[in-house]
Design goal:
The structure is a single chain. The protein is mainly α. The chain has 2 domains: 1-81; 86-257, no CATH class. The protein has helices at residues 2-23, 26-29, 33-38, 41-72, 90-96, 99-113, 122-139, 144-167, 170-179, 182-209, 211-222, 226-256. The radius of gyration is 20 Å and the shape is globular.
Length: 257
């Protein structure tokens, strides 16, 4: 029964992709750099959302159909990718979007190198975290846009790991317990997370649209207008809050299972 429902689900998604390609021209618009430079900033942000969501839908079909067949043959496969709009952290994006690739990188590259430890030297921890992204860059064809994409994602993952170590330290825990309520602590984390969230989105546009498209988004998002930049990050603040809520719900379901 799961095989039939899987085929029907991903078949319906495939039909939806065909409809989107016929009536919406997001992929075509992103090949027109001159147009991306002219559209209002709010329209540009909408195009970015549509582009990454379209890729997520396409990836879900490309993975889901073979996975349904594999499960019908009693083969164990990683779970389906999570929605990109529900992940505000670089770490979670790499962990939950392509679970098979994430597991492979950990098993065959990251752990053999020694993984990550707070007691490692700065050079060792930096090299260990960078090598998997070097492999990803080579694997995807070594285009300039892929270099920017891999570099920004490596930096995001690395900084998040350091930030989590700091957040879990005794001093920060004592400060949080003394001065911040649970709600305000979450709000503060959401504020700090809004900037990495925007960089995560822009880095993916380097991967999807190429160097010129990525540069347009990078320049217009952060340097075109300070008021627009602030408004974008206010919206992303609420996106981070939603992402946190979804992550909490998914974790509670996992514990119950």
């Amino acid at each position: 029964m799961s095989f039939v429902t899987g085929i029907l689900r991903y078949g319906a998604c495939h039909v939806l992709i065909d409809v989107l390609l016929y009536y919406f021209y997001v992929t075509s618009i992103h090949s027109d750099a001159a147009l991306l430079k002219k559209v209002p900033i709010h329209a540009l942000c909408g195009l970015a959302l549509c582009y990454v969501q379209f890729f997520c839908l396409k990836y879900m079909v490309l993975y889901g159909l073979p996975a349904s067949v594999a499960r019908a043959e009693n083969l164990s496969v990683p779970g389906a990718s999570h929605c990109v709009s529900a992940k505000h952290r670089f770490t979670d994006m790499w962990k939950y979007f392509d679970k098979g690739l994430h597991n492979w990188l950990l098993r065959y590259i990251y752990f053999p190198l020694g993984g990550y430890s707070k007691h490692d030297s700065f050079i060792k921890s930096t090299v260990n975290s960078a090598i998997p992204f070097v492999f990803v860059y080579i694997w995807h064809g070594m285009h300039t846009s892929h270099l920017y994409w891999a570099a920004v994602n490596w930096l995001g993952v690395y900084v998040e790991k350091i930030a989590m170590d700091v957040y879990r330290s005794e001093r920060v825990k004592m400060f949080e317990a003394k001065y911040l309520s649970e709600t305000n602590s979450r709000r503060l984390r959401a504020v700090f997370s809004s900037l990495p969230f925007s960089l995560l989105i822009v880095s993916n546009l380097y991967f999807l649209g190429g160097t010129e498209v990525g540069n347009i988004y990078m320049r217009r998002t952060y340097t075109e207008n300070i008021a627009s930049t602030l408004l974008i990050h206010v919206v992303l603040y609420f996106g981070v809050q939603t992402s946190m809520e979804i992550s909490s719900y998914q974790m509670s379901k996992t514990k119950q299972a």
